[in-house]
Amino acid sequence: MPYYRAIGDVPRKRHIQFRRPDGGLYAEELMGEEGFSSDSSLLYHVHLPTAIVKSEGVDPPAPAGGASPNHPLMPRHFKPHDLTTGGDPVLGRRLLMANDDVRICYVAADADGDLYRNSVGDECVYVESGTARLESTYGALDVGPGDYVVIPTGTIHRFVRTGGGLLRMMVFEASGHIRPPKRYLSQYGQFLEHAPYSERDLRAPAEPLVLEGEDVPVLVRHRGGLSRLTYKNHPLDVVGWDGCLYPFAFNIHDFEPVVKRTHAPPPVHQTFEGPNFVICSFCPRPLDFHPEAIPIPYNHHNVDSDEMMFYVGGDYSARKGSGIDVGSISLHPSGFTHGPAPGAVEGVIEAVRKGHTETTEMAVMVDTFRPLNIGHQASSVEAGDYAWTWAR
């Protein structure tokens, strides 16, 4: 993360004696990335964070399913709202797409699950609808619609639903770390003035969360699969921590779009970067304002990327007649040129002539630099005629 935080009680210096009221020592846990040569935080536990009493393997949940290559090559349209709902925010995930760098899942949870730790990579969770409390070793954080929640590798946490109905989330499980783009940051990690968001837009836990309990299960995703570790004491027992590594939330409505006189390409919408992929936010913004602008995306072919777009709000004038609407997911793979639906260009030009000055579209986009395989769950909710809509 770009900046330092200190929460709760911590001693004056790192790695010195820090004692509980009963005279015993708090147990340190240093969470550090890249062999402790990158961001880290130092946490102080009431109990030993190493004390486990049981470990058992867990079979992957059947609804997650596998994934197959996009063959024959086609642009595709999926409707995740048609997937079976239910389950908890982890084991209830339905795999949509995946490659060796990122797994993209969708979940409509109606239950709270056990504590969870992803030890393979960071996770970025986009909350489509519903509200929840993220409880973790770093404290608690309330999240809701439009929030991106970035959870560092190895963080023990759980989403506890706080509202009625389903908690709908898109989950990006990375093979490494998810961060703000480097070009938005100074060499020391501060957001620069040209960045579309800043430190003030980020929310993080503000106070410790100390829970009690014994024989507490934690589901762990690791390089060998899934296991369930049972901790002797509740792992959410941190009285204080400091550092630059912690979960945080950023709401898509706080993204400040970059606007040009003519149409700007997707990099201006970039929000985060991960290993061989980027996450972008398409937000309401003024339309291109050159007097002869074509205020709609041009036909384009990002030859090095597969593009997945999750349409989360607003009006998609560029896709009229294609079947794409709020709740849709499109996949435009490398090897295929895509762009506005037939007639959309002239339609938007005419709308601007009549006084239309802004777009209301909202979408979450992921570009991957390796091909995305298609999850069997996604294939079950595919609109099969999407590829031919440009030829109508």
Automatic annotation (TrEMBL):
Protein name per its UniProtKB record: Homogentisate 1,2-dioxygenase
Protein source organism: Actinoallomurus acaciae
Span of domain Cupin type-2: 117-171
Species classification: Bacteria, Bacillati, Actinomycetota, Actinomycetes, Streptosporangiales
Similarity annotation: Belongs to the homogentisate dioxygenase family.
UniProt cofactor(s): Fe cation
InterPro entries per the UniProt record, alphabetical: Cupin_2, HgmA_C, Homogentis_dOase, RmlC-like_jellyroll, RmlC_Cupin_sf
Region (Disordered): 55-82
Ranges of residues in domain Homogentisate 1,2-dioxygenase C-terminal: 277-390
